[in-house]
Amino acid sequence: MTKTPRERWATGAMCTGLGLTVLATTVPYVDRSATHLMARHIRAAYPAYTPTRVDSAVTTYLVLSSVIGVLGVLTWLGVIWAVRADMRWARPAATAAFVLGAGVGLAGLLTKDTSGETGLPPTLGWVGMAPCLAGLLVVVLLWRRPPPRRG
To answer: Which one, out of 23, 85, 103, 143, has a CA that is 20 to 30 A from the CA of 95?
Structure first.
């Protein structure tokens, strides 16, 4: 069955979102080994922390971001499958996933911790928001196409 241009755009946007999610999940690991933004951010917010405690906080963030990233990848794969299978519930599921993903991304970007600073350095917070841009495009494209025929 031939897909319409809008369906191809939606599939492309979903694959882009999947790629951005993988990228957003790996960037904190690159940061830990190369740029140390997170460690510097924690050290600046909590100057009394020992290097061991800063490293522990960075590790905690890595675990949290990895769990969120894996859940995001699984969600993208599920939505891609549902849209390609033309499931009736794909649009509401994609919308719910977008709302949840944007909420998690905004929480990471905007939530302040006990030091009064945001929990994440702004650069890492914005990287976490990148998949949401693709998610917004997917939701718009899915709701503008004709309703699905199956399930």
So the answer is: 23
